[in-house]
Amino acid sequence: MSEEEFFQFCQMNDTLEFERDSHGNIILMSPTGSFTGNFNLRVSGHLFLWNEGSGLGEVFDSSTGFTLPNGAIRSPDVSWIKSDNWNALSQEEKEQFAPICPDFVIEIRSKSDELQYLQDKMLEYLANGSELGWLIDRFEGKVGVYRSGRAVTVHDTLDIDLSGESVLPGFLLNPGALIK
User: What is the pTM of this model?
Assistant: First the structure.
């Protein structure tokens, strides 16, 4: 399917969520469990509040699709794009699966997610332009920090202050503190 055909396919099946990999394979995304959905919202909320104060970009939820430079259409659990990059897109591009890779992404492992699949997605985001990403795995109690041009750092705890570094200046998130 072309990008336009895939967009229309998703619109016709709007009760389902899909991604498409760089080879054109369509991936059906299963809904998350309630606990994971609540945790995802807490993480998103913290990023949203930071962004409202900083005004440096735009925050997107897990149902947002982006067309990456490699042709994949991905929907990170949480994502953020710098204002300059977002504003460079036309309104038409913003209305579909915007042709841009988020500058920052978070993937949160749900019970149905294969860890290797998420790790591969994180590397794909970096290869397509993301500067920083976090893979939060509450099942193994670990967080992977992915940075452009650097090796992955894995923290063996969720109780850690993750820094937005120079990408999200002043943003801190402690995933362990958000689990209730």
Answer: 0.90
